Amino acid sequence: MLDYKIYNNDENQQYLVLLHGIGGNSNIFVRQLKFYKEHFNVITLHLPGHGNSFGIDKYGNSFSEEAVVEDIIATLDGLNIEKAHFIGVSLGSVMIHYLMKSHPDRVISAVLTGAITEFNFVSKVLLFLGKMIKSITPHLWLYHLFAFIIMPKANHKQSRDTFVREARKMKREDFIGWFDIAHRVGKSYDLVPKLAQKIPKLYVSGSEDHLFLSNLKKDIKQDINASLELIEKCGHVCNIEKYREFNRITLDFLKGNRKHSVKPAKQIS
């Protein structure tokens, strides 16, 4: 099972699972927790290589987004959680795309923050350059560079600083492992509108999310059950930079999609 923490365990409330971005951890949701746990049983999960979850060496040569999704499902099974709402940020949103395709019956609704449906030309060039220098560059230098390119403005500084601070807790081999499969992000959205068409989806992006927003707007037009909320003067990580607006928008959406009952989680010692 992945490293997790449960806030509340009320059998009368549904479950809400929070998934962080690469290099991040549950600390990025500190300004959401008190709002969400008034209405849901909240679970924060640490993806492989983050927090106290196992490293990606567990997978050997079979490390992939699909394999990580199976460990997310195994963790929910271990907690006896049949269905849940999901919120993802950046990489967390990518993982929810894979989850909705392979296990749509486990998702009540999804909030996808700073979602990436495909890379634009600039993003592809950056990934290529990153691959060229990753073996000779400290991984935190690479992380600093990409954080600044993705979130370049002064008002993005808090988000940059938060992710860089948390990324220091990550082992180099785990960061490089995630970086090596980053080029497959575009495949995460493939067939989502078809395989997960019944799942209510809210995409929340900053108007200044310059690398990913244009393709996101284009791609989600094909999904009749998806909507997009833009937060003005905000970058890639909306839940940190404009947390008040983010909390209001997402909580309204989640409270409007309470359609299924779920089993209470069992305690794991």
Describe the structure.
With 269 residues, the protein is an alpha/beta fold. It is 41% helix and 14% strand. The chain is built from twelve helices and seven strands. The protein has helices at 30-36, 65-78, 91-102, 121-133, 139-150, 157-167, 172-180, 185-189, 192-195, 213-219, 238-241, 243-255; strands spanning 4-7, 15-19, 41-45, 84-89, 107-113, 201-206, 226-231. It has a seven-stranded mixed β-sheet with strand order 1-3-2-4-5-6-7, sandwiched between helices. Strand 2, helix 1 and strand 3 form a beta-alpha-beta unit. Helix 2 crosses helix 3 (91-102) and helix 5 (139-150) packs antiparallel against helix 6 (157-167). Residues 259-269 have low confidence and may be disordered.
